[in-house]
Structure prediction request, 234 residues.
Amino acid sequence: MRRVTWVYIARCGDGTLYTGVTTDLHRRLAQHSAGRGARYTRGRGGVRLRYCEAAATRGQALRREAAIKRLPRARKLRLANPPGIRPGRPADLPFIHRTIAALDLDPERVAHEQFFVAVEGRARIGFVRIKPYARCFELGSLAVLPRWRGRGRGARLARFVIARFPTRRVWITTDLVGFFVPLGFREAVPPADLRRKLAGITHQVHRTGIVAMVASKAHPGLPHRRPSPKIMGT
Ligand SMILES: CC(C)(COP(=O)(O)OP(=O)(O)OC[C@H]1O[C@@H](n2cnc3c(N)ncnc32)[C@H](O)[C@@H]1OP(=O)(O)O)[C@@H](O)C(=O)NCCC(=O)NCCS
Prediction:
């Protein structure tokens, strides 16, 4: 099974910016901060994530990394993640599993590195993931805890992941058509991986009318290269 590869910009303790590639943002940032990451970040204090975007393949990630590294610092600083949304950590998994079960969401192949978690102070209030399949990716498991709903948190999480999606086409399978249409999604015939998922959904017992939808991502900041023709659903 493919994994998402992340291209990221981290701010080092001395104020300089480091651009790298990883399949696990949380683990990689911890390595940098512990002095076990890249030679550049050693001895520069703890690092903080500033920006990340997903790539469909390692080759695509390395090309994006090279393009970002060539940018002047001022342009790099314009690439920034919004506050209150951070990469998933292993310690988030009990919260994620509990919430997925409570909200009847997709429990398949949950791994912390697929997730972004929305936080208010120290409290986790929601999450979203990029779920990899053999030949496409899905925006999945979007959730906001009930007491935080109706304040734009869900749309903000969805927009965040759309802008960082590894492929130009962003797929979802959902019964909330009315929520996703204003975000640019329309119903469409999905790639084979998602057709199989739709045919085999058995866990979402309380949900009916699940359809596939697609949106085109508008990439922030930088033009995107054409993805590899080997990857369907792009
Ligand atoms: C779907 C969910 C993430 C929305 O979170 P939220 O923080 O309440 O959403 P927002 O406040 O950002 O809403 C954005 C817009 O969508 C609308 N909206 C919210 N929930 C909706 C729903 N279930 N159906 C249709 N529209 C909805 C809001 O009214 C708002 O419209 P507005 O911009 O015109 O005011 C949240 O209700 C949830 O976690 N639901 C349970 C899990 C789930 O079903 N996830 C989707 C699986 S694919």
